[in-house]
Amino acid sequence: MRRFVIGQAKNLIDQTRRRPRPHNNNIRLLSLLASDPIPVSSSRFFSDMTGSDSSSSLPVTLDSINPNVLKCEYAVRGEIVNIAQKLQDDLKINKDAYPFDEIIYCNIGNPQSLSQQPITFFREVLALCSHTALLDRDETHALFSADSIARAWKILDQIPGKATGAYSHSQGIKGLRDAIAAGIEARDGLPADPNDIFMTDGASPGVHMMMQLLISSEKDGILCPIPQYPLYSASIALHGGSLVLSEENQRDIVDFCKKEGLVLLADEVYQENVYVPDKKFHSFKKVARSMGHGEKDISLVSFQSISKGYYGECGKRGGYMEVTGFTSDVREQIYKVASVNLCSNISGQILASLVMSPPKPGDESYESYIAEKEGILSSMARRAKTLEEALNKLEGITCNRAEGAMYLFPCINLPQKAIAAAEAAKTAPDTFYCKRLLNATGIVVVPGSGFRQVPGTWHFRCTILPQEDKIPAIVNRLTEFHKSFMDEFRD
Amino acid sequence: MRRFVIGQAKNLIDQTRRRPRPHNNNIRLLSLLASDPIPVSSSRFFSDMTGSDSSSSLPVTLDSINPNVLKCEYAVRGEIVNIAQKLQDDLKINKDAYPFDEIIYCNIGNPQSLSQQPITFFREVLALCSHTALLDRDETHALFSADSIARAWKILDQIPGKATGAYSHSQGIKGLRDAIAAGIEARDGLPADPNDIFMTDGASPGVHMMMQLLISSEKDGILCPIPQYPLYSASIALHGGSLVLSEENQRDIVDFCKKEGLVLLADEVYQENVYVPDKKFHSFKKVARSMGHGEKDISLVSFQSISKGYYGECGKRGGYMEVTGFTSDVREQIYKVASVNLCSNISGQILASLVMSPPKPGDESYESYIAEKEGILSSMARRAKTLEEALNKLEGITCNRAEGAMYLFPCINLPQKAIAAAEAAKTAPDTFYCKRLLNATGIVVVPGSGFRQVPGTWHFRCTILPQEDKIPAIVNRLTEFHKSFMDEFRD
C-alpha cells in the first residue's frame, strides 16, 4: 500500500512537472496534511503551478499573500504595543535609560496580566477536572472546597467517559450547555435552549465563525456603530435598559433589524461589568422577546466570553454564542463551520459553564466567591472613577463616565502645533500623542484612529485595569506628561 | 458622552433608513461588537442595505450564505457520525431495539474518548498551573510528584506575573516556546529558534492561519497527495527516512518544492506514532537542511499537535507551527493573523511545551512516564496489527500494514450488486457500506469518498483506538457483518 501511496505522490509530482505554467498565480503550496482534513484544502484540488518569483528565492512575498490580510488592522496589538514590548525588553538591561521602571499595559482588557487574581472556586474546579485522580484522594478534601469537588464530579459525569482530554461535541459538551442555558434563563427570565449554544474559544472565534458564514462577497453589508468600538457598543449593550433612553435605543435597534431584515450580532461580554448599582444588564434577546419578536421574527446571535466580566479568564479562551432565529438548514451550516475545528478547548468550556452557574447561597464557597467578585467589581468601579476624574482635569481632555466595561475613551483636543508635528512625523495625531505618552511614562494606550473615531476628533483607549495601588502613580505620570506635552505644543 | 454615542447610533440608523436599496446584496448584518475589534468587521464599513428576502421572515437563507461554507465537507464529522449520535441517544431508551449495546467511534483520532488515560505527569503540571494556590500547600507534596511541582514553578516563572489566566504573547509564552525549540533541537540535532514557533489551539487552526495568509484568490494552487488523506500523507511524513525509498521520497518532495518555488506545509503531528522499532521519524526540516537547503532556500511550515502522539490530549486544543524560510515582512503578516485571536489557550500552550520536554531520566516521574507512554504505543501497535490482519482475512478487502499514525484505510472490492443498491439509494457505494456497518454493529467508520480516494476504488477509514479488550468483539462484529453483506450482494 505504501508503494501505492508513494506512486501517487510521484505521479502527482511528474504530472505537475509536465504541466504548462500560467502566469496569473502567485502562491505555491504543497501541503502534506496528516491530521484531520482541512476544508480549505480538501474542498478542492488545484494542480496548476507557476514558476517562483524570480526576484526572490523564497516563494512568498507581500504582493502574493491574501490582500485582506494586508488590509486587516488590529490596533490593540498594533505598533504602540510592539514599541512597548521592545521597551520592556530593553528595561531589563538598561534600567536607568528610562524615566519609568515598568511598562503598564492599558491597551487591552487583560486583567490577570495586571495582577487581578482568578476566582478561587473556578480554578479549584478546573484543577480537579485537569487531574481527575485528585478526586480519589483523601488529601484533596483538605485542599479543595466541598462544592468545588462536588461540581467537578458533576461536570465529569456530564462528559462521556469523564474524558476531559477528548474532543467534545462540536457545539460543546451537552451537560455544560445545559448549565449555560439554565444560567441564561435565570438571567433573562426567558427559556433558553442548550441546542442554541455554540461554545467557542472566546468571543472572537465565534464572531469570526458567524462572519465567515454570513459574508458571501464584498457586496455584503456589515453595519456597526461608528466609531465601531468596544466602549461605545459596550455602552449601548450594557446601558440598554439602564435609562429609558437606552432601552429605547435597544428597542430602536431591534425594530431596525426587524424592519430591515438584519442579523443582529450582539456582543454581550460585558454583561457582568456594570458598576452602577441601580443599573442592570438587559440582553438583546430579552428586549426583542419583550417586544414580541420570537424565533421566527429576528435572527439574533449573542456572544459571551470568560475573558471579561469580573473573572477575566482571558488566557483560558472560553465563551459561547447563543444562536436564535435561524432556519434549521442554516443552523446545520453553522454546525458544520463549528465542526471544522472539532471543538473549543474543554477547560474553556468548563469555565464558561462555571461563570454562568457560580456558587449559590449555602454552598461552602459562596461567601468567599461573592467577596472575591464584589471586591474586583467595586475596585474596577473606583479605578474607573479615579481615572475618569483625573483625565477630565487635564487641559483639552474630556472623558465620559465609565458605568460599565473596562475602558475609558477620552477625547483629546490637540493643538494645531501637535497636529502639524504629527504630520511632519508622518503619523496620526492621536498615535503621535500615544507614542509620546509611552516613551515618557511607560503607559501603553491605544490611539482612537484604530477604532474609526469620528474624523477630526482624537481619542485614546485606556483600560481601567491597573491594580488600585498603582492608579495614583499612573495619574501623576499621565498628568505630568500631558502638561509638558501641552506646554510644548500649545498654540 | 453616552448621549454622543447614542446620537451616533441614531444617525447611523436614520442615514441607513434614507439610503436607496440596491438589489445585489444578500446578507444583512448589524454587529454590536463589544469585545476587541474583529478585523473582518473593522477593516471596512459597509452601509448599503437591502430589503429582506420576501420569501422568508428571517434574513438568512442557504442561498445567501458564503458559498464556500456550503462547498466545504468534513467527513470525519459528517452524515455517518450524525446517524451514530442519534443511534446513541436512542440506545439509552430503546436498549433492545438494536443488535449492539454501544456505539464504537472509529471515525476520528480521539483516544481519550475511548478510555485512553492521560499521561499523569502532564495532568499534574496542568492542575498545579490551573490552581497555583496548591503550590503553597504542604498537602500538595503528598498528591503530586516532586518534578511536576518543580515543572509547574518553572512554567509559572516563565509567565509574566505567573498569570495563567492572562492573554499571552500572540505567538505563545516565550519561555514555553524556548522549551519547544529545545525539544525540536534535541529531536533533529539542528538549531531551532523560539521566534519561529507560533503556538496554536491544535494543528487545524495553524493550518487555517497559513491558508488564510497564503490563499489570495481562486487562482492559487494547493497541491496535495491524492487522495489527500491523513493516512497517506501521514505515511509519507512518518515513514520518511524509515526506508530508503521513503527518504528518497521526502527528498523528492523537498527538491520539487525548491524547484517549483512551493511552500511546504508539513503536518508532522504523528511524529510519536511510529510502531516499528527500527524506524524513526525524520522531520522535513531535517531532511531539507541535510540537503543543504537553508532558511533562504525553502519555505517550510511544520505543524505539531498535542491531540495525537501517545498523549492524545485532543480536548485541550494545543499545538504549534514552526515557520521557517519566510521574509521578515511576511513573518509580520503571519504574526498579525496570529494576533487577531490574541493567543491560543494557555493550558494547551503548557501541554505543548510538556510533550516537547517530558520527564528525563532521574526525574521522579520518569519511570512511570515511560511506562505509560510505552504502554499506550505498544498497545496501539498490537491493535493496529490485529485489526489489519482481521480485515485482510475478509473477502474483497485489502488493508495495508499501519506502521504509524492511528488509522487503517482498507480498500473494499464491492460487488456490482452492492454498487447498484447504493446507486438506487442515491448514496456512494462506500457510504452505503459504512451505513450498513453502523446499523448492524454500532461501529462508526468514515467512507473513503470523504477523502478523495482514487475514482472507482472504495475504502473506509477506521481508527485503531478502541481499547484492547474491545478489539476481539469488534473483529467478530466486523467479520460477521461483512460476511452477511457479501452474501446479500455477491454477484
Helical stretch tally of chain A: 18
Radius of gyration of chain A: 26 Å
State the end-to-end CA separation of chain A: 80 Å
Find the count of extended strands of chain A (DSSP E, 2+ residues).
13
Oligomer description: homodimer
Mean pLDDT of chain A: 84
* Beta-strand fraction estimate of chain A: 5-15%
Low-confidence stretches of chain A: 1-28, 33-55, 226-243
Largest interface: A-B, 192 and 193 residues
Largest sheet of chain A: 5 strands, antiparallel
**Which descriptor suits the 3D outline of chain A?**
globular
Tell me what the structure shows.
The structure is a homodimer of 491-residue chains. The first copy, chain A, is globular and about 65 Å long. Chain A is built from 18 helices and 13 strands. In chain A, helix 15 (366-392) runs parallel beside helix 18 (471-489), helix 16 (416-424) packs across helix 17 (429-441) and helix 17 (429-441) crosses helix 18 (471-489). The first copy, chain A, is α+β, with helices and mostly antiparallel strands and 491 residues long. Chain A has helices at 2-18, 39-42, 67-71, 79-93, 120-130, 140-143, 146-158, 174-188, 203-214, 230-239, 244-260, 284-290, 328-340, 346-355, 366-392, 416-424, 429-441, 471-489, and strands spanning 28-32, 104-105, 197-200, 221-223, 263-267, 299-305, 319-324, 397-398, 407-408, 411-412, 443-444, 446-447, 458-463. At the A-B interface, helix 1, strand 1, helix 2, helix 3 and helix 5 of A face helix 1, strand 1, helix 2, helix 3 and helix 5 of B. Strand 4 (221-223) of chain A pairs parallel with strand 1 of chain B.
